[in-house]
Each structure stands twice: as C-alpha cells, then as structure tokens.
C-alpha cells in the first residue's frame, strides 16, 4: 500500500488538544460524547477536566438534548461523535 509519513499530525490529537486549550481558557466549555472517548482521543481531556466531559453512552439521540440543556444553563457544549 501507499506509504504514509509518520510526520503527519493526527487529526484526532489536534482535535483533543484544541478542545483542551479552549477549556483551559473558558470554564464553560463542556464536551458531550457518545461512548467515543477512545476513538476521539479525549482520554486526556477527561483526565484533566473530569467534570466537563459527559458520556451519554451509545445514545447519540440524547447528545443534542444534553447539549441544548447545557447551553441553556450557560455552558458552551461541544457534541463530539467519532
């Protein structure tokens, strides 16, 4: 198969790092995941911000409802699906 450079930056890593960077600056940011902490590379985010990552499990239909409630309460929700 084609050779892929090991120097390419992993998009999942960039995504997780960007969310963590924003979360450090704004304590309103909350991430809502659908049992995708591992595949979204959000384990480090969960470890650093354990109360700001909500895992709804395999219930994607609930993610948007949870996010809407968080926003209504003054948070900045990010719906994360992997």
UniProtKB/TrEMBL annotation:
Record SUPFAM superfamilies: Thiamin diphosphate-binding fold (THDP-binding) (SSF52518)
InterPro entries attached to this UniProt entry: PDH/Transketolase, THDP-binding, Transketolase-like_Pyr-bd
Domain Transketolase-like pyrimidine-binding: 10-79
Gene3D superfamilies attached to this UniProt entry: 3.40.50.970
Protein name: Putative transketolase
Species per Swiss-Prot/TrEMBL record: human gut metagenome
